Amino acid sequence: MKKKVLISTGGSGGHVIPAITIYNHLKNTHETLISTDLRGLKYLDKNYKAFVINTPKLNNYFLLPFSFLKILFLTVKSFFLLKKRNITILISTGGYMSLPLCLAAKILGINIFLIEPNMVLGRANKFFLNFSRKLICYSKNLINLPSGINHKLTTIKPLIRKEYYETSTHQKHDNLFTIIIIGGSQGAKIFDELLNKCFVSIAKKISIKIIHQTSEKNINFLKNFYFQNNIESRVFSFDHNLNEVLKQGDLCITRAGASSLAELSFLNIPFVAIPLPSSKDNHQYKNAKYYNEQDCCWIIDQKNFDEQKFEKFLLELTKKSQDYMTKKNNLRKLNYQNTWNNVNQKILKIINEN
Fold first, then answer.
1. Which residue, 132, 161, 318, 325, has fewest beta-carbon neighbours within 10 Å?
2. Do 36 and 9 meet the contact criterion of CB atoms below 8 Å apart?
3. Residue 67 Cα distances to 57, 72, 123, 148, 273, angstroms
């Protein structure tokens, strides 16, 4: 009889993508379900059996009493959900969204496995660390890990969706140097306004193509901007087949979410990381630093962004300089022996360990 697993996730793609990947690693050996909040639903297609546990944020002090009451209600709801479904394993990808399910799982004595895709231990994962069986992460040098917990730490290769393994080698459709901008579905001013001016200037010197991810509200503005400046482009907000988009890129300018960097790294696409300054515990910078220390990427500080310097730097990269080729080769070395089967076997070993 297959063990029943519930994967708790929600919020951003940075939480949902690892959940989807874990789901596909386990679906043939375990009866697997996913729980998400309303924000996370847009990252899931109909192939996944998902329950909605819409945990409120805890960032509004005036609403805290109501938020705690709702979390209490959702914990009771989660208790009966776990019991009714006979769940034996709960896997949490972190974030406040998992609070009710983790609390209910603790009460029921269900085995809890935590996944930390960032290089900094998240606050929710840190809270539930003592209740968990294992903390699954990508590096032994996880920041903010409490002392005396090393025995729970286990590392795996970054969780990358299965379709990426099928697109790891590819041929571009054209010879244009293609720059991909991944600003996140929420968008960002530096990605949607400041970078554009650099592209206009560069396009006067060399033919380029821009593939730009932005928020829904900025799509028309960016489409018109690139059209008016005669720059070949594609602008979009969200694409379930992002691997098909990324494989057309020569260079990516991106935030530094763990999943985004892992996927770019696996596809051997050199990237310029501009970490979100307001990310909790500065985790985006730490994510980018992991790759930067292995000479696999460049990091730009948004607070000190200089348009002229960035334009000059970017123009050099479009010529596929020695620095560019070094980064590309180092990415290839970093992902040596990273196969779906190797990661799958490691995950199953961790989950099935007595």
1. 325
2. yes
3. 7, 9, 18, 32, 35
Length of the chain equals 354
Give the whole-angstrom CA distance, residue 142 versus residue 160: 19
Distance, C-alpha 5 to centroid of its chain: 22
Q: Are 143 and 122 in contact (CB under 8 A)?
A: no
**253-284 confidence digits (pLDDT tens):** 999 999 999 999 999 999 999 998 888 888 99
Residue 283: partners with Cβ closer than 8 Å, 6 or more residues away: 118, 119, 120, 122
Q: How many contiguous H segments (helices) and E segments (strands) does the chain have?
A: 14, 13
| Alpha-carbon gap, residue 294 to 273, rounded angstroms | 14
Contact 6, 50 (CB under 8 A): no
Q: What is the DSSP letter of 97?
A: G
Least confident range of 46-60, 162-176, 270-284:
162-176
Q: Phi and psi dihedrals of 247, rounded to 5?
A: -70, -10
Flag whether pLDDT at 46 surpasses 90. Answer: no
Cα–Cα distance measured from residue 137 to residue 212, given in angstroms and rounded to the nearest whole number: 30
Identity of the residue numbered 326: T
CA distance 267 to 337: 13
> In the chain, what percentage of residues exceed pLDDT 90?
64
pLDDT class of 36 with cuts at 50, 70, 90: very high
